[in-house]
Structures are given as C-alpha cells and as structure tokens.
Write a structure and sequence with these properties.
Helices cover about 40% and strands about 15% of the residues. It is built from eleven helices and eight strands. Strand 7, helix 10 and strand 8 form a beta-alpha-beta unit. The longest helix is centred in the middle third of the chain and has 16 residues.
C-alpha cells in the first residue's frame, strides 16, 4: 500500500489580493521546475494541511496549494462576502497566471472535486490532467441526503448531536435553520451551531471512528469557517444549475482523468461518482471497496499516490 511522501516545507508562499476584500494564502512546494499541479481542498470552508503537500512526488511536481476564500490562513477569516464557486474558479486562474504556466494538473477531493470539475469545465484548455476523488456534484438530492435525511439513518447518535441546536419546529429545513444561526450576530450562537455542523461531517467521513478528526472538526475556530462557508455554499446550491457538473462533463473528454471513490462514502455517496463516470467515460474509474470518504482512508490514499505518480512524467 502506498503512503504519503515525506514531510516538506514550502519554498515560496504569499497572499493573493483578489481586489474585492479577500487575501488568499498560497504556497509552492516540491520542485520549482517540476510538473505543475494545483491542489483544491475540501469543505468548502476547510483548508490545506501539511499532509496535502505529501500527495505528490516532491522531486517531480511543482505543487501549488491555497486556502480558499475565508479559510485557513486566508483573510478575512470565515467571511462569506464575495465568496462563491465562481469567485474561487477565478482565483485558480489568477494563481495559474501568477506562477506562469499554460496548463497544470488539477487535483480535488470532496468539495475540491466539485471545484475541480467547475474549473476544468470552464477552462478545459488549462487542465493537463484532472484527478478527482470523493465526488460531490452539489445536487439537491446529495445535499438532502447528508443534511436532511439519509445519512442520518446510518449514524443516529451522531445525528442527534447535529439536530441539538435546532428546535423541532425548524427541522423541516435544517440547512436553512443552520443558516440563521451561523449568521446570527451573537458569537455564542454561531459557535454552537458551527461545532454541531462541523462535527457531524468530521465524525462521518471515515469508515471507522477517528479521534483526530473529532478534535479538528470540534475545534471552535476551525468549525466557524468550515460551517459558515459550507452552509453558505449549500443554501445557494453552489451557484450552479441543478446537475450542471454532470451535464457538462463532456467538456472533459480530451483531458486525461481519474475518478477515485470510496464504496462506503456516506458524505458523497458512490452514485454521483458513477454518474460522473458515465458522463465522462474517458476517465479511469476506481472504486475503493473498503473505504469511506476521507483521503486518509488507506485504500483511497494508495490509489491517489499511485495516480499522481502515474501522471508525474506525462
């Protein structure tokens, strides 16, 4: 089984001024003359971590990672102003121009797969390869499965903790109810809602319980950006037409691609990955039979590293 490459530090980093109130943190790692790749993290509302640098051979790749608007080291923290899918697609293009490459490999998992598909479908000429895992189409049925009813049947005790901040009379629209609390002027109301929302995801993305995830997603500071931005995107359907990313997958047909999916992924069930594969049959499809959602699942990590290695010299 393949594992992460050794730890590395960035050789360059900075902040991209978007011109509309955001400063987006970016970093470059690996070989300054290597194959360019952009890593798109999940959420929306999460951030990059040192482990994400290690998904690529540092001797062969020039790795650009960035914290999306409002996330991680980007400022203002947890901001939902001027923060949409298409703002992020434009940021990716600015970063590509900043480092001076015509094309790059695009890699995204979970929400990162959504963003990768949106970017590659809008700018297919800029993607030398496209690797996506834990496929999230941001369709209404996918959102309702995870945040209204569906996944709740598999994790009933965790679901009760997710429901706790919301009065019974508001539970017919849980995303809307959370929205009201996540933008409430009272920081205590925001924090209670953010932790409950964030922990629901953090404790359901792995096949087996993971204490490190519980600690990370339960941290109030992390949870605030994660929940506010994620909920902001979801109540607006990601500023996408229903089914748009699957519908427009034909635009990807000339891009070498790989789709990696965990069989027991509860956050982004395998149906979406399969439907993407049918719409983009030119891509290689890998179903990992003993995995949930997270990239840290051993089988998913193995196939991710094998895939990035396979594209390293192309």
């Amino acid at each position: 089984m393949r594992i992460l490459y050794p730890e590395i530090e960035p050789y360059e980093h900075g902040w991209l001024d978007t011109g509309d109130g955001h400063r987006v943190y970016w970093e470059l790692c690996g070989n300054p003359k290597g194959k360019p790749v952009v890593f798109l993290h999940g959420g929306p509302g999460a951030s990059c971590s040192p482990a994400h640098r290690r998904l690529f051979n540092p001797e062969k790749y020039r790795i650009l990672l960035f914290d999306q608007r409002g996330c991680g080291r980007s400022t203002p923290y947890a901001s939902i102003e001027n923060n949409t899918t298409w703002h992020l697609v434009a940021d990716i293009e600015r970063l590509r121009e900043m480092i001076g490459v015509e094309k790059w490999m695009v890699f995204g998992g979970s929400w990162g797969s959504t963003l990768a598909l949106a970017y590659a479908e809008k700018h297919p000429e800029r993607a030398s390869e496209l690797v996506v895992r834990g496929i999230f189409g941001l369709r209404r049925a996918e959102l309702l499965w995870y945040y209204q009813e569906g996944a709740s049947w598999l994790f009933p005790e965790k679901w009760e903790r997710y429901l706790a901040p919301i009065p019974v009379e508001e539970r017919g629209d849980l995303m809307g109810a959370y929205r009201r609390r996540l933008v409430d002027p009272d920081p205590a109301v925001q924090t209670e809602a953010a932790r409950a929302w964030s922990l629901w995801e953090g404790e359901t993305i792995t096949l087996l319980p993971n204490e490190a995830n519980s600690n990370q997603y339960g941290d109030a500071h992390y949870a605030l950006a994660f929940a506010r931005i994620e909920n902001h995107y979801f109540v607006h359907d990601g500023w996408l037409e229903e089914g748009q990313l699957i519908r427009d997958a034909g635009r990807l047909k000339h891009i070498p691609g790989v789709i990696i999916q965990g069989r027991y992924d509860v956050a982004t069930p395998a149906k979406t990955a399969w439907e993407l594969h049918k719409a983009w049959p030119e891509a290689r499809f890998i179903m990992v039979e003993d995995a949930g959602h997270a990239v840290t699942e051993p089988g998913i990590l193995h196939h991710v590293i094998e895939t990035t290695d396979a594209f390293a010299d192309s």
